[in-house]
Amino acid sequence: MKINKMKKITVCLFAVLLSLTFFPLQLIAKAETVSASATATKAAESAEIKVLIDRLEEIKAMDKSNLSSSEKKALRKEVRSTKEQLEATGGGVYLSVGAIIIIILLLILLL
Asked: Which range, 36-40, 45-49, 85-89, 103-107, is most confident?
């Protein structure tokens, strides 16, 4: 009885994996056109990131001993907002806990 259940699970799993491997050609064509515009956007973002990093380095190198308290406060606000912008444009790959669990289960089942 358990063997039949395992066979059903593996057949369902392979069916899901096979259905995920076949993509319509229209989606692939659209992805190629989108990637060209994405590279232009990334180039603009990288230039923007470079400007923000240069500004942070400039603030670090500043002599802050001669500044008034309001000027120091303005610099702190600028540094915070710049760091927030860098974090927002930094991107990255985020995986949810559910996705990690599914990946681990798939690896265990397939290996």
From this structure: 103-107
Helices (H), 1-111: 2-21, 25-61, 69-90, 97-110
Distance CA 70, CA 90 (A): 30
Torsion of CA 45, 46, 52, 54, to 10 degrees: -160
Q: What is the dihedral of CA 75, 79, 80, 82, to 10 degrees?
A: 130
* Domain count along the chain: 1
List the end-to-end C-alpha distance of the chain, in Å, as a whole number.
23
pLDDT for the residue numbered 28: 53
Distance, CA of 99 to chain centre: 15
Domain extent for 50: 2-110
**Residue with the two structure tokens 């692939």:** 28
